[in-house]
Design brief:
Blueprint: E1 3-8, H1 16-29, E2 34-39, H2 41-44, H3 51-68, E3 76-79, H4 85-94, H5 99-103, H6 106-112, H7 121-135, E4 141-143, H8 149-166, E5 175-177, H9 212-221, H10 240-252, H11 257-264, H12 269-295, H13 298-327
Helix pairs in contact: 3-12, 4-7, 4-13, 7-8, 9-12, 10-11, 10-12
This protein binds tryptophanyl-5'AMP.
Length: 332
């Protein structure tokens, strides 16, 4: 069976982009693949984190996976740091990764900003750890939002570099799965900016834990333009905010962008926003309520993570041992 690996960093609030770009697609795929969903706490440490918050967020992301419909029996859910083989494989792969490949990563450039010399080695090496996450399980498919595409290309390059160096067809080249009408959800206040955990501007982001009134208010306040909604997809050209809201509607109703455009063709934004708000409140309200219920029972969440880590280790350790043998590390 083909295997999926994907993950989310436990930093800040999970938002609609994480849900539509990643989690919702995982739920749809979980019956067709052998699935491993990780809470990548080691990746979170590439930027400073408050230890108490990090633990709480790790449980909250776990709760989000389950509340959104990931079945913890069918799928493996665990936190990255519980399986030490991730960091070990990251070192072995790092030794095969040319600096030139890492220098091309746009997310590092964005996150490091102008203070490049002060950025941590972890932030720079982050895509190598991500490659290790995937390759450790010989995952064949990786469902993510569009912003992870470049990191996945690097993971494929690293897998190829390992296979070539040792003349063996060991790691499959993982396929990105970037699909649906909302692979890149934009800020509700600025159609040119990605919806992100780090955006502090008011009303830019819908959080998965927002209550119904807050979700509806943020949609009502979302930036639009003065024209009615277009008659065709071509009419979305140059209308980033309209395209974003229609994409969100389409993804939440499992429709294509073309279908959403057809449905609201020529209508005004206020009517459309009322329908979008009702749809979003219905879906996110249920998930948010379930998340709150799960987070209130940390013992249950920790049990899921413990069991998940055991199951993850059972796949990871034999693969790591094979890599050790291939690379010539003596296991006396
Ligand atoms: P992270 O935590 O930034 O984001 C988690 C997932 O959410 C998607 N996403 C979005 N999708 C659509 N629109 C948006 N505005 C939006 N913002 C975020 C991301 O594409 C991602 O799928 N490096 C990864 C975590 C990771 C990983 C892995 C993923 C570590 N190891 C192995 C896959 C496989 C990250 O920081 O995602």
């Amino acid at each position: 069976m083909n295997r999926i690996f994907s993950g989310i960093q436990p930093t800040g609030n999970l938002h609609l982009g994480n849900y539509l770009g990643a989690i919702r697609n995982w739920v749809a795929l979980q019956r067709e693949y052998d699935c491993i969903f990780c809470i990548v706490d080691l990746h979170a440490l590439t930027l400073p984190q408050d230890p108490k918050e990090l633990r709480a967020q790790t449980r909250e992301v776990t709760a989000a996976y389950i509340a959104a419909g990931i079945d913890p029996e069918a799928c493996i859910i665990f936190n990255q740091s519980a399986v030490a083989a991730h960091t070990e494989l990251a070192w072995l792969l790092g030794c095969l990764t040319p600096l030139g490949w890492l220098n091309r990563m746009t997310q590092f450039k964005e996150k490091a900003g102008k203070q490049r010399d002060n950025a941590g080695l972890g932030l720079y090496a982050y895509p190598v750890l991500m490659a290790a996450d995937i390759l450790l399980y010989k995952a064949t498919h990786v469902p993510v939002g569009e912003d992870q595409k470049q990191h996945l290309e690097l993971a494929r390059d690293i897998a190829g570099a390992f296979n070539r160096r040792y003349g063996i067809d060991f790691f499959p080249l993982p396929e990105p799965q970037i699909f649906g009408a909302a692979t890149r959800v934009m800020s509700l206040r600025d159609g040119a900016k990605k919806m992100s955990k780090s955006d502090t501007s008011d009303y830019s982001r819908i959080n998965m834990t927002d209550d119904a009134d807050t979700v509806a208010l943020k949609i009502r306040k979302a930036k639009t333009d003065p024209h009615p909604l277009p008659e065709s997809e071509a009419g979305l050209e140059g209308r980033a905010e309209a395209a974003n809201l229609l994409g969100i509607y389409a993804a939440l109703s499992d429709a294509s962008l073309a279908e959403a455009v057809r449905r609201f063709a020529g209508r005004n934004f206020s009517e459309f926003k009322e329908e979008l708000a009702a749809l979003a409140v219905g879906i996110l309200g249920r998930i948010g309520g379930e998340m709150r219920r799960l987070v209130a029972d940390p013992g249950y969440i920790d049990g899921i993570l413990r069991r998940g880590a055991e199951r993850a280790r059972a796949i990871a350790l034999p693969n790591l041992r094979e890599v050790q043998d291939i690379t010539g590390l003596l296991r006396a």
